[in-house]
Amino acid sequence: MPTGKQVPNRKIFLLWAVIFKNNSSHTLEKEIFFHPEYYGPAVGIAASLLIFLVIQNEFSYDTYHSKKGRIYRVVSTQLNKSNGEINAQYGGVPIPVPDAMRQDFPQFEKMGAAWNLGQAQIYIPAEGLGEEKRFKENEGLYWTDAAVFDMFDFTWLAGNAKGLTEKNTVVLNESLAAKFFDNPQRAIGKTIQLWSFRIPLVVSGVLKMYRLIQTFRLNWPDLLKH
């Protein structure tokens, strides 16, 4: 999965920009116009660079995980019953599938699932004479299980994923932990409440944020177990 090492694309673009600028300036000084025969090579180089960047991006996802060669993502394909043609493809599966696969394929070493929760209102109960805090998170909320943290590599700033084996627990990234509790270290053992139902979730761990290319575009902001 994502790689911690990324090619500085901006520098590549700047390098080509300097080359083209210098060559163009040199040509203009000597001949006052840009030869039409230069258009073909220029377009070819630009197209080659674009293709290179696309391929580089495709192969840069999720490569920083040490077990990346043994991790597979299960997806869904929807077929037309009348003609067998593919109607749609999804990057996920129906909710019952993970439990069914655990039962039918015991040879799998680990299996983890994550379900995108969408946006939600978060409540931080008042402490002492303080006031209740409210936050609206528009993305990055996932229901998941502890197996995810055995499969993927993460750096823990506090706590761990063991608490996710219990119901009503949550893991936060350092940004949200600081946002909710001012200090990530203070978040462990604290309770947040989800939605207007006020579902209580106890913080069991705080993750270091990643600024890497990932399949899950969330930097794992917070992962819930309910």
Please outline the helices and strands.
Blueprint: H1 9-31, H2 39-58, E1 76-79, E2 86-90, H3 97-104, E3 114-116, E4 120-124, E5 133-137, E6 141-144, H4 147-151, E7 156-159, E8 169-173, H5 174-181, E9 191-194, E10 199-207, E11 222-225
Parallel strand pairs: 6-11, 8-10
Antiparallel strand pairs: 1-2, 3-6, 4-5, 4-9, 7-10, 8-11, 9-10
Notable traits:
11 strands, alpha+beta, 5 helices, disordered N terminus, single chain
Summarize the structure in words:
- With 226 residues, this protein is α+β, with helices and mostly antiparallel strands.
- The protein is built from 5 helices and 11 strands.
- The strands form 2 sheets. Strands 3, 4, 5, 6, 7, 8, 9, 10 and 11 form a 9-stranded mixed beta sheet that branches.
- A hairpin with a 4-residue loop joins strand 9 and strand 10.
- The protein is extended and about 75 Å long.
- The two termini are 26 Å apart.
Order of helices and strands: HHEEHEEEEHEEHEEE
- Low-confidence parts lasting 5 or more residues at pLDDT below 50? 1-29, 218-222
Cα-atom radius of gyration: 24 Å
Class from helix and strand fractions: alpha+beta
Shape: extended
Mean pLDDT score, rounded? 78
Q: How many strands, which pairing sense, and closed or not: the largest β-sheet?
A: 9 strands, mixed
The total of helices stands at 5
Approximate strand percentage: 15-25%
End-to-end separation: 26 Å
Number of strands: 11
Proportion of residues in helical segments? 25-40%
